[in-house]
Amino acid sequence: MMVKHILFSFLGLFLFLTLMAQDTTERLPKVYVFNIDEEIAPPVARRMKKAFSEAHQIEADLIVLHMNTYGGLLDAADTMRSRILRSKIPVIVFIDNNAASAGALISIACDSIYMTKGASIGAATVVNQSAQALPDKYQSYMRAMMRSTAEAKGRNPDIAEAMVDQDLYVPEVSDSGKVLTFTTSEAIANGFCEAQVESVNEAVQHYGFPEFETYKLEIGVTDKIIDFLISPMVHGVLIMIIVAGIYFELQTPGIGFPSIASLIAGLLYFAPLYIEGLAENWEIMVFIAGIVLIMLEVFVVPGFGITGVSGIVFVVVGLVLSLLANVRFDFSPVDFNSLLEALFIVLLAIIGAMVLSFEAARHLLGNPRFGIALAKTQQHEEGYVAADTSLASLIGAEGTAYSILRPAGKVLIEQDVYDAVCREGYIEKGEKVRVKDFKNAQLIVEKTN
Q: Is 6 within a domain?
């Protein structure tokens, strides 16, 4: 009985080891390929985050960046660089033509660099929208990132810094006065490229995987929608709708189309930025606080003073900060140009919204097609007289609010409905009112206790 038990144990162990050996021999390495073939910007950084997450979920053995870019935004590039450096899965890059500026920074962060014939890497000077070099404080930040990234991957930090600083001289590599850019052969000679290959497959094979399974990020409808919504042009349009909706809602009582349009635009503005990691919770709360302060100024506090001004400032600050890639209260990755660009987008959109709102209000209120204005002028020769005489007799009379007065609306006095405006704050429908004066064919009323 003992011998039989031992034989069965050995048989079970043999079968287990056989199955494990089969699994080991049959399983191909999993290679996750992520394409970077556009400007480095927040959408690309977000897609990289998603790609790396999927690569970890499938337990990939290698991540390959298929790159062809002229660069892009520094904050997005820094986010991508940091993600590569923290990755537990090896990351290599295949430069399929260009890895300039931000692309060079991302490439140097990878474990191995492969380049196609005729490709280039370098030219990482920080520039503005007009391709003019920014002041040295921006270059200093980029130089430090390039040096630290090269050091982390065992590459020459002086060469990496020379890709930013035209004044840096590297013996037998870079002459001062020129920003360093490597061709494929130059990159190989100086340790910034492992080999010249002509495809992603060749790069993976050179890395050490003769056969492998390929996985790629699938771009869904949601990704495309988010990419569209976070473009600067769409940001401007959404801000205009938000501001215009608030303006028209303040002119009319009740909750109507303007407030709904403003709410939807606000959601479309903040939701993608929140998903992107740009808009923090506190930045959204600053914007909401600004709206509340403006409402208080209009409906509660008489005149227009510190509450209204503070509300406008809060709204602008909330919209601007949501466009910047800060981490909570840390704005160190944000350069001055990004701040100016965000401020320009917000202020231009607000000014445009106000101008269009005033024009739209003027035309709507004066156009009889919309039923807002009178279709015909009431001439004195036709027997019409001013209402001043009848309105004057109502001073001191009491009635009820026929609609909400915010501040304009209608009141019911002795079974007749009149246009009215409250002196301060707002009056809910059904509340008791007293007529204090009249102006421009409108009664001026106040709440009675």
A: no
- What is the three-class DSSP state of 157? helix
Number of domains in the chain: 3
Residue 18 falls inside a structural domain: no
Taking only the tens place, the pLDDT of each residue in 2-39 is 555 555 555 555 555 555 554 444 679 999 999 999 88
Measure the CA–CA gap between 88 and 91, rounded to whole angstroms: 9
How are beta strands 442-447 and 432-439 bridged, if at all? antiparallel
Q: What is the pTM of this model?
A: 0.62
How far is residue 183's CA from residue 105's CA, in Å, rounded to a whole number? 16
Instruction: Give the chain's count of helices (H) and strands (E).
Output: 15, 13
- Any domain includes 153: yes
Q: Are 317 and 279 in contact (CB under 8 A)?
A: no
Which three-class secondary structure string do you get for 42-78? HHHHHHHHHHHHHHHHCCCCEEEEEEEECCECHHHHH
Q: HEC profile for 147-163?
A: HHHHHHCCCCHHHHHHC
pLDDT, tens only, 344-359: 888 888 888 878 777 7
Angle among Cα 130, 131, 133 to the nearest 5 degrees reads 115
Residues forming a β-bridge with 387: none
Q: C-alpha distances in angstroms, 235 versus 19, 25, 241, 268, 311?
A: 57, 53, 10, 9, 20
Q: Quickly count: other Cβ atoms within 10 Å of residue 289's Cβ.
A: 16
Domain boundary among 195, 219, 243: 219
Strand pairing category for 120-122 and 181-183: antiparallel
